[in-house]
Amino acid sequence: MSTAAHTTKSPRQLYNIAKTLGIWDPAKIDLTEDKAHWQMLNPDQREQLIKTCALFYEGEVSVSDTLAWFMLAVPDLDRRMFLSTQIFEEVKHAEFFERYFQEVCGKVDTSAYLVPEYKGVLLDELRQRGETIGQALTSGNGDLPLALTLFACHYMAVVEGTMALTGYEFFEDLLAKTGMFPRLLEGIKLIRADEGRHLVHGMDFLREQLIKYPDHVAPVRELFNTQAANIPRRTDFVFTPNPLGLDRERIQQISYENHNQRMREAGLE
Asked: What pLDDT, on the 0 to 100 scale, is given for residue 1?
């Protein structure tokens, strides 16, 4: 493991940035053009787009629900200040997709797309990590530092830093290939800017934890390796079938690249 930890921006700096840049309003994005584009898709194409949006929505709702435990448990006030903005932003991201379903796609049962390859990592396992923090925090029992480390790895490195970053490329490819859904891409770009702050903070925290607690390296490495093994199955779900004709192999390769980059940022080699 590398011992060269560095903080690119402090939590207080990220908090100050969020006060200015994190206040965009999903309700003010005009979806009229995207509504017209939706009518041009055939049923199979609509299904593939809904599938990806549903996974994003479910993920945003889940991380909004679980981050509070992490915020309450971190000892540093500046981190808690920044994390308060992150919770607000995660809720806002969920609002964007909720509105997109209502006004563009129509009524969607997003939970129907939570196949095991996604339900565990986005909901069940992440919720359990949050509850583990809560139990250690409220009862005084359990290894709170390890619970915080594993939560940061799961949430920031895997969900935000690998899965979401890869998902953004799906939408970029969609617009590049079809010239359609510009307002969806506008929302994604705004979300991605918010998530950049989240990722900087989360990966700095994870790296610092692994230096402070070297015994956390092994379980974090195991978590990384477990999630890497699931990348092909998750890719298959989104691209089977692939009526939009997007580049499956490119997206999967980006997923591996994001995963490896997060491991490097954590100080794991």
From this structure: 40
Domain membership of residue 207 (yes or no) is: yes
Query: Look-up: residue for tokens 């919720």?
Result: 127
Question: The pTM is what?
Answer: 0.95
> Long-range pairs for 150-154 at CB < 8 Å and ≥24 separation?
150/216, 150/219, 150/220, 150/223, 151/66, 151/69, 151/70, 151/126, 152/70, 152/202, 152/205, 152/206, 152/209, 153/206, 153/220, 153/223, 153/224, 153/266, 154/121, 154/125, 154/126, 154/129, 154/223
The enclosing domain of 177 has a CATH number of 1.10.620.20
Number of structural domains in the chain? 1
In a domain, 50, yes or no: yes
Q: Which domain holds residue 262?
A: 11-17+30-266
pLDDT of 8 over the 90 cut? no
